[in-house]
Amino acid sequence: MIDIAELLTFIKVAETSSFSAAGDQLFVTQPAISKRVASLESSLGVKLFDRIGRQVQLTEAGIRLLPKARKMAEDLQDIKRSMTLQMQDVSGELRISTSHHVGLHRLPKSLKRFQEDFPSAQLEIEFVQSEEAYQDVLKGRAELGIITLSNKENPLIESLPIWSDPLACVVSKDHPLALSKNLSLIELAQHACVLPNKNTFTRQIAEQAFGKQGLKPQVRMNTNNLETLAMLVNIGWGWSLLPSTLVDEKLVVLNLPDLNVERKLGVIHHKQRTLSRAAIAFIELLKSDSTSL
To answer: Residues in domain HTH lysR-type (predicted)?
Structure first.
């Protein structure tokens, strides 16, 4: 197996007729140049240079090798140029797994821009729950996940927060707490609520807030659909925690200084997976769009 560095060193020595001059041009010491040439000669089983005094001349084997070595060096440069062009080209398939809520309320502008800016790229989007999208990335089924970020670290997952998503505590207009000015978590915990399922990141964030005061919310019903939660609150089934994008005039936002709950929405990818140019471009576009909101 021929070492590329040894082959390039051979070419430089042949061109300069000098081990020291070749070392200067390659930024390595003369002993290192001699070692590379000796190693190449050993691999090929032939002598490539005659050293006569201070003169360095190609042997017959060296003369025959030089054009082939130059051709290999040119091919190597072509490979480098080709890969550079490919790395500049945003194309191919990009598989994204995202939650319904993030996909509906955060992604439309970015998706439109991405398709306009990179028409050669093909987006494949799976709309699932954040927790499922997390598993899609972890198991390699998706390159990017755009989700509610978990508050637990995973050594295999890289998380990049993009948006802050404060959660408002809301009730219906005819709820007993609707006219309350300032509430404590103890008072809130005495009333029924509707929340996402226990395995969701949003539910875990909410229960952590209650747990700090030794409390547990009285969950009347679980559903992962945030629009359904808003409807259940509106018909008086209890209070809930909803992002501001779902709070309308039918709901009352409670003033709860002790319940300052905020989700982080963003991008995840597997740390052991080399991101495609399309994935890198999409992440940069998300970051750009988020700062322009």
So the answer is: 2-59
